[in-house]
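User: Watch each token:
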Amino acid sequence: MQISITAGVANCAEPPSDAISSESHPSEIFESRIMPIFKSTQPSSCIQCHLASVDLKDYILPSHQETFIALERAGLIDRKHPSQSKILNLIRMGEKDPNLSAKRLHQKTRQAELEAFEDWIITTCEHDPPVLDSDASVNDEAKSKVATLVGPEHPNEVVRYTRKQRLIESFTREVWSQRMRCFPCHTPFEINASDPKHVKAKQRHEDLVKQYGARINLFEKDPSGTLDRWVAASRKKNQNHLPLINLDTPKESLILLKPLSKVPAKREDGTLSPVSSILPVSHAGGLKMFEHDQSYKAIRRWIEDYADVVQGKYVSVDQLPTEKWIPTQKIIRMSNVPDTNEVGTPVQIFVHPKSQKQGLPIAFTQGIITPRGFVNGPLYEIVREELNNAEADSYSPDDNPATQPEGNMESILTAGEYRIRVYVDRHGKLDIDPATYLTEEDFLGETSVTTQWKLGFPNATIFSASNLRR
């Protein structure tokens, strides 16, 4: 099932035409306005910010009294200031979403949910003292037990990980950062019409739009808009096109297969066959990426992670990935690879601080052995996340991911001395699982380099395979 990060929601929480007045009994409001949300088969407006793990249904119990008591004991209802109750602020969070299309899409459902809960909470606080009075006679242990009955069933760390903004941030790092591989055909916003160097690029793009239409414009102005476009396109079933993002078989996502594919074969008359968007895929732009590039590894890993998120496969903290890959323009290059290693064999290069004798690497790349005995690759910094934040409060309305995008992280690859460890895939492990890391049985050797880590291929940090020691 394809799930959009801006998926529509049925009007499951629509107030009836003869909306219940504030004079109605709270239990009647609960039955008429809250229970339809609870019983609906459609997701609530929570899906605007959370792709999985959270639904407004998680905060509703079968009865008016049970629900009110559980929400109050969980700190989500403020009896003194009912209109400022935290559960209402959580529902309002979607109003802060910078994605205007998602905000508009969910506005009707969100407003209906907000009005229903606000009417019910205020009316209960004003007209149902038995519910409120019953709270005083319950001991703390019982209160705590009831409070756990509402809210997401998954840990806070999983809830945070499956937020839409977290997916956009990882998409920006691992996929959007690779967009210039697709210049100029699919990146109209990167073409500068006033730049003489872009004259041919502009013409090339215009020709492609005439031939294929606006669908050639895969990249929007920003990562969020681009991801929305890809998700929307992927939801449309088309027997002539693989989905851009294939949730069922991530490795068969068109956004991954196209840059891996060659131009279509020539016909007998010398003209090219039509471009194919089903297996076997062909690409009018030809090869832009190889299966053993680190770029391929990063993009495929992101698609697999996205599929796991929207399909609800993450349910515990130990299932969550705990590292980020931050792409850089810092290039590492190994020369003089012995000819005993076959051309085209994948190689993984890990960077460790010189002072660190043991432990995890801080940067990584993957490439193949070239006919001239080189291995080249842009480095990806590896940043491991701490998931067990005891102070984290997933209920805080001030912790809206839509208003707190990840800032630019300071590079951990600074000038200095580093250990370089090299592994060669002699046994085809990466053919079976391109996302895997090679192990000690694949170890070729290590060496040290002192480098400034300057940017770009002309300034690559180069070391010789002849200096590797086991």
User: Anything to note?
Assistant: The radius of gyration is 27 Å. Strands lie at 323-335, 346-353, 363-368, 375-384, 416-424, 443-451, 461-464. The mean pLDDT is 84.
